């Protein structure tokens, strides 16, 4: 397993936690599931999956209704995904 796949797996675990956390607003949980679906699309290039996911994460991190612990997780996932190079 490449280190990039490891990063993706860690991000997926955090996103699953967000998606299953009932203290998180429904729209944020829905977005977390959408990102999970995007990251699981093996037929798309890795950089495309990560850049799409980062874009969604940036949108939801600005939601005023998001709990602080969830916002921190979202920033963490986004920064992990940003370590994946575009030219991979």
From TrEMBL:
<comment type="similarity">
    <text>Belongs to the UPF0147 family.</text>
</comment>
<protein>
    <recommendedName>
        <fullName>UPF0147 protein RE476_08725</fullName>
    </recommendedName>
</protein>
<dbReference type="InterPro" id="IPR005354">
    <property type="entry name" value="UPF0147"/>
</dbReference>
<dbReference type="Pfam" id="PF03685">
    <property type="entry name" value="UPF0147"/>
</dbReference>
<dbReference type="InterPro" id="IPR023130">
    <property type="entry name" value="Ta0600-like_sf"/>
</dbReference>
